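Students often ask why inverse folding is considered easier than folding. One informal answer: many sequences map to the same fold, so there is more than one right answer. In these notes we will look at a single instance of the problem. The structure comes first.
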């Protein structure tokens, strides 16, 4: 066994871990977007969203 094997193995393991983290964050982001869409469809709005005008006046 040479040092090259251990160095290569460590890079491969690090790459796998990073790819798993990227995948996890991507999937979690999709899940949060889906939850936000469901909440907005049910009538719950974000606080940062502008309220709809009630008297027909433009904001």
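Output (designed amino acids):
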């Amino acid at each position: 066994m040479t040092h090259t094997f251990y160095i290569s193995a460590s890079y491969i393991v690090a790459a796998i871990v990073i790819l798993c983290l990227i995948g996890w964050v991507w999937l979690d982001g999709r899940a949060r977007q889906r939850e936000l869409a469901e909440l907005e469809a049910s009538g719950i709005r974000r606080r940062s969203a502008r309220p709809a005008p009630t008297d027909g006046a433009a904001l």
